């Protein structure tokens, strides 16, 4: 009789249980891919809403008149900057979802834990708040300014041959890279070779996020988006230190790069994507009595 009662109780409990689908919605970008064979292949933008082009091949802008060179450079770079910023913000949104879940539940959803710990490994930290600070993108004006300094407004060999906008070095012989013509102290120097401008920009943001030298920059970035406060904290990006940040600050101001901080991706290229993270069985407490 006791076994029968237990069996009936379990049957009632199971029949009353409901399955809760745990969903997460983000916005996925559907970019346009293009190659640049001449300056006419660079897509101009006429207002602050732009098409997210990913350029997989570029040309040197060295021979163009100065004003045209600068214009074409920004048109090539800005879509990649905005796309990278968007993707970083979507990761932050997922982290905020995980934080919200953990305030109400004593355990991680498995797919969330995989997502989280992959980011911990990638960004070299082990706490959600710190991870969000590392992921937070800084203004486009700073990125464009550094890109212009490091590539000579799109004139460098590394830019043309390897989509390397920021001259980021390679220390891994197993990755795609380009040998510099001049080494240092009899040591060869290599820079990374990327499949697109967007990949170069993404790697730049990750470098800023991971390297200890930019810790002060990241701390200020968590509080402010003001280039005037952030640029001086990039003095360790270059061997010339404060001279570098003074050059960067002048370049941003003289070329009015801050105007691009208000640009955005055309919403017609954004698609809502709903991800099912898990299905959980919930047992209403009132059925236990």
UniProtKB/TrEMBL annotation:
InterPro entries: Bax-like, MGlyc_endo_b_GlcNAc-like_dom. Keywords: Signal. Residues 1-19 form the signal peptide. It comes from the Bacteria. Residues 116-261 form the Mannosyl-glycoprotein endo-beta-N-acetylglucosamidase-like domain. This is Mannosyl-glycoprotein endo-beta-N-acetylglucosamidase-like domain-containing protein.
């Amino acid at each position: 009789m006791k076994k029968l009662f237990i069996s009936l109780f379990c049957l009632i409990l199971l029949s009353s249980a409901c399955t809760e689908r745990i969903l997460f919605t983000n916005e996925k970008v559907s970019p346009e891919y293009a190659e640049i064979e001449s300056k006419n292949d660079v897509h101009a933008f006429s207002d602050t809403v732009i098409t997210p082009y990913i350029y997989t091949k570029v040309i040197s802008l060295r021979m163009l008149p100065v004003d045209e060179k600068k214009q074409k450079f920004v048109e090539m770079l800005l879509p990649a900057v905005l796309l990278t910023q968007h993707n970083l913000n979507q990761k932050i949104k997922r982290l905020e979802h995980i934080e919200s879940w953990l305030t109400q539940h004593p355990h991680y959803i498995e797919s969330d834990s995989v997502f989280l710990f992959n980011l911990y490994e990638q960004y070299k930290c082990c706490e959600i708040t710190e991870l969000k600070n590392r992921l937070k993108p800084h203004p486009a004006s700073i990125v464009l300014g550094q890109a212009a300094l490091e590539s000579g407004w799109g004139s460098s060999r590394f830019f043309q041959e390897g989509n390397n906008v920021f001259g980021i070095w390679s220390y891994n012989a197993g990755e795609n890279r380009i040998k510099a013509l001049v080494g240092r102290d009899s040591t060869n120097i290599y820079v990374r070779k990327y499949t697109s401008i967007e990949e170069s920009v993404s790697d730049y943001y990750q470098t800023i996020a991971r390297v200890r030298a930019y810790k002060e920059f990241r701390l200020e970035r968590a509080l402010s988006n003001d280039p005037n406060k952030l640029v001086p904290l990039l003095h360790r990006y270059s061997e010339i230190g404060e001279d570098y940040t003074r050059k960067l600050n002048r370049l941003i101001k003289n070329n009015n790069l801050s105007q691009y901080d208000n640009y955005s991706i055309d919403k017609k290229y954004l698609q809502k994507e709903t991800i099912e993270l898990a299905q959980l069985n919930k047992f209403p407490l009132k059925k236990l009595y």
